Amino acid sequence: MSEGYAIELYFDPALENQVLKAWNGLARRQISNQLIEIESRPHITLFSTSIIDPLKLENVVKVLASKQEPLPISLSAIGSLPSGKNVLFLAPTPSLFLLQFHSQLCEAMKKEGIEIAEEYRPDSWIPFCPVAEEVPKNRMAEAFTVLRDLKLPVTGYAMDIGMVEFSPVRELFSFVLGGTGEA
């Protein structure tokens, strides 16, 4: 049974490889390999929910993707979420392009009657690219040190948008930004 669903932005290969370096560095040191194990892909989560009909969102995402050129992304900071899951992330600079794209997605979902949880609403959303989950508390400082070796910022583009079911991660659909078809 599914734990939930998410709409995610995916990166160009060079930026994706920079994020994978972080994942692999943390896994090699046996700090966290959770994202690798659940077969995730480097991303920024735009929306997540525990229950939804994915078919209801497929056309919304497809139309939005067709109207949006690839988004410039600069992963420029390291952070941690104040949750029990001990998540570490790389934070993108919150550019107007990224914030407007997220806002447009939320507006399109609202028009379809889709409820958006507080943490994904435009006025409270924190964009982030997860690099580790379930980091043991006594290894957080070490994990931050590993991430500092990335020489931030790392830059590139968000090239496509997709919906996944988790966990493990299974892509349901994805579309190239600025394209007319599936990724």
Overall pLDDT confidence:
94
Note the main sheet.
Answer: 7 strands, antiparallel
Report the sheet-strand fraction: 25-35%
Q: State the shape.
A: globular
Count of beta strands: 7
Category from helices, strands and their pairing: alpha+beta
Number of helices: 5
Our Rg estimate from Cα atoms comes to: 16 Å
Q: What is the helical fraction, as a range of percent?
A: 25-40%
State the oligomer.
single chain
Unreliable residue stretches = none
Distance between the termini: 26 Å
Strand and helix order: EHHEHEEHEHEE
Question: What are the main properties of this structure?
Answer:
about 180 residues, alpha+beta, 5 helices, about 30% helix, globular
Task: Explain this structure.
This protein is α+β, with helices and mostly antiparallel strands. About 30% of the residues lie in helices and about 30% in strands. The chain contains 5 helices and 7 strands, in the order βααβαββαβαββ. It has helices at about 15-30, 35, 55-65, 95-110, 140-150; strands at about 5-10, 45-50, 70-80, 90, 130, 155-165, 170-175. Strands 1, 2, 3, 4, 5, 6 and 7 form a 7-stranded antiparallel sheet that branches. The radius of gyration is 16 Å and the shape is globular.
Which helices and strands occur, and which strands form pairs?
Layout: E1 4-11, H1 13-28, H2 34-37, E2 43-49, H3 54-66, E3 71-80, E4 88-92, H4 96-111, E5 129-132, H5 140-148, E6 154-166, E7 170-176
Antiparallel strand pairs: 1-2, 1-6, 3-4, 3-6, 4-5, 6-7
